[in-house]
Amino acid sequence: MNPNKKWWIDINLETLKKNLELRNFECFIVDKKEDVVPLLEKIIEKGSMVSCGGSMTLFECGVISFLRNGNYNFLDRYKEGLSSEEIGEIYRKSFWADYYIMSSNAITLDGKLINIDGNGNRLAALMFGPKNVIVVVGINKLVLNEQEGINRVRNIASVMNAKRLSKNTPCTSSGKCHDCLSQDCICSHIVVTRRHPVKGRIKVIVVKEELGF
User: Fold this and answer.
1) Could you report how far apart the first and last alpha carbons of the chain are, in Å?
2) What is the pLDDT of residue 35?
3) Is residue 82 within 8 Å of residue 125, measured between CB atoms?
4) What are the DSSP calls for the chain, one per residue?
5) Torsions phi, psi of 201, nearest 5?
6) Rounded to whole angstroms, how far apart are CA atoms 110 and 70?
7) β-strand partners of 201
8) How much is the pTM?
């Protein structure tokens, strides 16, 4: 990596870590996606009930495979052949999980998590329910402030996810948010998590690589 780019990343992540901790989040910084699973092995106790939110980042880091093959009670929303009712049951059971793993659509330099959701199950679990929440984010999710974060979740993350899911929404044609009310819309809830009342419940792993959308 170019030394100037490395300097910029390191100095901003130092600021981010400090600000996350001020908001009662625990923060871990790793160099590459291959570092995520070894860190999770240290954090998650064997035999724990673990669930996850929808996330391309988790697939890219090998987290889903790790959970499927590890000594965990994994509520696997991605298991083949599940009906919509079975997936909904997994969503509800996730509130009793020991660990809930997800990504964030944006994270601000002053330590806020910004997310957008269709069903809302991921954001509900982030806010309340599972004993621990682990958020894995790539450096591409880092934004300067809340306004930039909202713009990112609406015009980058949501648009690409709608395209990935083959949704019939205006953004999948134009590449930008239309604030639509389409039946296929995946943007029902926007949540800014500015702090958490329980210190350390939310653990943020920041990877110095671009991951997900």
Assistant:
1) 22
2) 98
3) no
4) --HHHHHHHHHHHHHHHHHHHHTT-EEEEESSGGGHHHHHHHHSPTT-EEEE-S-HHHHHTTHHHHHHHSSSEE--TT-TT--HHHHHHHHHHGGG-SEEEE--SEEETTS-EEEEESSSHHHHHHHSSSSEEEEEEEGGGEESSHHHHHHHIIIIIHHHHHHHTT--STHHHHSS------TT---SEEEEE---SSTTSEEEEEESS----
5) -65, -40
6) 35
7) none
8) 0.96
Single-letter amino acid, residue 54? G
Between vectors from CA 195 to CA 130 and to CA 159, what angle results, nearest 5°?
A: 80
Query: Which tokens in the block code for residue 71?
Result: 């000594």
Q: In this structure, what token pair is assigned to residue 204?
A: 């943020």
- 10-residue stretch averages of pLDDT, the chain, 213 residues long: 90 98 98 98 98 97 97 97 96 97 98 96 97 98 97 96 96 96 96 97 98 96
User: Which two structure tokens, joined as six digits, stand for 191?
Assistant: 């949540």
